[in-house]
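Worked example 2:
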Amino acid sequence: MRLDTLDWAALGAELDAKGFAATRPILSAAQCKALAASYDDDALFRSTVVMARHGFGRGEYRYFAYPLPELVARLREALYARLAPIANAWHEKLGKPERFPATYAAFLATCAAAGQTRPTPLLLRYGTGDYNCMHQDLYGVVHFPIQAAFLLSRPEADFSGGAFVLVEQRPRQQSRAHVVPLAQGACVLFAVNERPATGTRGIHRVKLRHGVAEISSGQRHTLGVILHDAA
């Protein structure tokens, strides 16, 4: 894990400008392989969702149980430390009174006080023909405004197709789509729900949804790191 070597000033500026930012590889190939292989270890997970049953798309995902695997827990804490100042700046611009505490433990305590105690990091597995519809990962009243998705598989080697897609819903304008290319071990940071944007009339809200395009061939694994817990 190489989060500390990233240019966080540049990533923060990109998040402010676009609502998302992609990194170079953070996880090693060995870490990616181990995480993807852990999908079949039932003891690690609290629940499994077959997307077609709920109209979410096609494919599966599994929510980790507490205690989280060490690597996932470390990613969660390290991401929070880097992203909390950005999240607080977003809330200030949007006129939201809530501020995020300095420590991740304090933020999880805020989630727990709101009845949100179930862990939300998840592994997703897609096969040929699978896809993920556009959605948001809110899970309760308390939510951290930025999350991360790590690509665990090798594009054009383990799978083809399956691009990560974001759609901006802009006020008084048509929606705008973004396709975010990722290498194995890289992540995309993106707004969970909305971000502040500056226009001719000042600050306004831009809502984002995310999904995955259809897998053309092979199998694609992703680690989703959501920082708030679920009710």
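Helices lie at 8-18, 29-37, 70-94, 104-113. Residues 91 and 98 are 7 Å apart (CA to CA).
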